[in-house]
Amino acid sequence: MTQRTNRIIFNILAKDIEETAAFYETLCGLKRIYTSDWYIVLSPDGGLGDGALNYELGIIDEVHRVVPTASRGMFAGGYLTLVVDDVEQAFLEARRMGADVVQEPTPLDYGQTQMILRDPNGVVVDISTPTEH
Questions:
Q1: pLDDT in tens, 34-89
Q2: d(CA 82, CA 72)
Q3: H helix count then E strand count, the chain
């Protein structure tokens, strides 16, 4: 029997979970669906669906005991992509927040406008909007 995936959660190891959650809430409009003193979960729609596949972003205290030892240390080898309604507005908000913008919004030849930045923990984030090309 083939397994069914019910949820997809990408966890970011954070020095400050509140600061990191606020970064994604402010910049991308994600909403909290769970908060504790060591873990926050964000979702685009702010809640768990009715059996639908859920996409979530977890923000976890980097030194909490449940963090797998193999995942501790500097993040490398990947990046997080978040598709938003308006990357230009996200860029303005990123500048207002003092975010580390690596690449300003740039139209790409496959129909996306992409901005690259780093979150407060150094994770590379691609924020994109579909555009006509």
A1: 999 999 999 997 666 555 557 899 999 999 999 888 888 766 778 999 999 999 99
A2: 23
A3: 2, 8
Domain that holds residue 26: 1-64
| Helical (H) or strand (E) element with 33 | strand 31-35
Cα distance between residue 99 and residue 101, in whole Å = 6
Q: Could you tell me if residue 126 is inside a domain?
A: yes
Token reading at 44: 């685009």
- Bridging pattern class, strands 80-83 and 124-130: parallel
Is 44 within 8 Å of 30 (Cβ atoms)? yes
CB 28 within 8 A of CB 90: yes
Same domain, 7 and 56: yes
Please check whether residues 50 and 90 belong to one and the same domain.
no
73 lies in some domain: no
φ and ψ of 52, to 5 deg? -80, 160
